[in-house]
Amino acid sequence: MIVLATSDKGGTGRSVTTSNLAYRRALQGDDVCYLDFDFGSPTAGAVFGIEAAGRGVKTGAGAHSYLLGDVAEPARIDIWRESSWLKKERPPGAGRLVLVAGDEGGGEFQVQPQMIERCQVLLARLTEEFDVILVDLSAGRSYAADIVQGATATIGAGTPVRWLVFHRWTRQHILAAHGLVFGERGIVQNGERLGYTREQMEDSIRFVRTAVQEPDSPQLGLLRPTQASWLHQCHEELLKLAAQRGLGRSMVAGVIPWDPVLQWREQIIRDLDIDSTQIANPETGQAFDDVALHLTRTSH
Ligand SMILES: Nc1ncnc2c1ncn2[C@@H]1O[C@H](COP(=O)(O)OP(=O)(O)OP(=O)(O)O)[C@@H](O)[C@H]1O
Ligand SMILES: [Mg+2]
């Protein structure tokens, strides 16, 4: 399966959440590859705790160099071995967890037909080796997104392609995510141009709400009663707006609660962070597990 992780706005929690989903799927036994296609800012290495790839790799063998044709194969990093958080944490039964990082200083570029071909070759190779490939696309409409959407359009029916669209729980983010998916030259329209039906596209797209503080969350326990009831009202308004804009419950893969560890350390949340040191909330781990499992439900 190929999972395309995107968002309209930057800083939505796309990389932090997708990295945690990759980790959870590997714990569930799948071989997982994380492909960092955020060419402007490929920082997934930092989330995985891999110092040498904190802002992409410096070797000139990252995903960006591969698409440009500079290397025959992008370098792979074994996350279980290289990550400072996960080094001694691979439990028996866990699948492979591999990062194909971006290049430090890569930047955006114009789409050339050869890049789509190279991307197709890379995805075909990876799908032979891995159960799940998560592709972190940059925010908004990008060349990377065009290349990957073009490349996945020719992938065989045996490899499902899913979109996860990340957004914060605010008015601006809901409107922006709606535009990215349903708007002019958005994901659905592009998909239709590539030969998919509208139903197929809508079936393959799900939204993930990130860093959500539900009005009854204990973290908001210090609010005055007036603030608490106002917050309930805001939450209801957002639910209504999301439903009106096609981001309602049936289109949601999951809701990731606000978590201090994600806010301050942007890291992988391990079970020991929940059970032993108790720095992360159990609800966050549960939400990651739920979304990770959701990916393979036949009808999402
Ligand atoms: N569930 C969460 N709880 C608390 N903070 C979060 C959560 N998810 C993300 N964050 C915070 O949001 C910030 C942005 O997250 P992240 O870098 O994953 O977003 P992004 O969409 O990949 O951004 P960019 O567009 O810059 O690549 C992080 O610094 C992190 O602190
Ligand atoms: Mg990111």
Q: Could you characterize the architecture of this molecule?
A:
42% of the residues lie in helices and 15% in strands. The chain has helices at residues 14-27, 44-47, 63-68, 79-82, 113-129, 143-152, 171-182, 187-193, 198-204, 225-244, 260-265, 271-275, 282-294, and strands at residues 2-6, 32-37, 77-78, 97-100, 132-137, 161-168, 205-212, 252-257. It is built from 13 helices and 8 strands. It is α/β, with parallel strands linked by helices and 300 residues long. It has a single domain, classed as P-loop containing nucleotide triphosphate hydrolases (Rossmann fold), CATH 3.40.50. The chain is globular. Adenosine-5'-triphosphate (ATP) is lined by residues 7, 10-16, 38, 41, 139, 210-211, 256, 258-259, 262-263, 266.
How would you sum up this structure in a few lines?
With about 300 residues, the chain is α/β, with parallel strands linked by helices. The chain is about 40% helix and about 15% strand. It has an 8-stranded mixed sheet, sandwiched between helices.
**So what's the overall shape?**
globular
Beta-strand segment tally: 8
Helical region count?
Answer: 13
The unique ligands bound to this protein are:
adenosine-5'-triphosphate, magnesium ion
The amount of beta strand, in percent, is: 15-25%
Q: Report the average pLDDT across residues.
A: 95
CATH topology: Rossmann fold
- Profile the largest sheet: 8 strands, mixed
Distance between the first and last residues' Cα:
13 Å
CATH hierarchy class name: Alpha Beta
Q: How many domains in all?
A: 1
- Sequence stretches where pLDDT stays below 50 over 5 or more residues: none
Helix content: 40-55%
Any idea what the radius of gyration is?
A: 19 Å
Helix/strand-derived category reads: alpha/beta
| Biggest β-sheet: strands ordered side by side in the sheet | 3-4-2-5-1-6-7-8
Give the full name of the CATH homologous superfamily: P-loop containing nucleotide triphosphate hydrolases
> Which CATH architecture?
3-Layer(aba) Sandwich
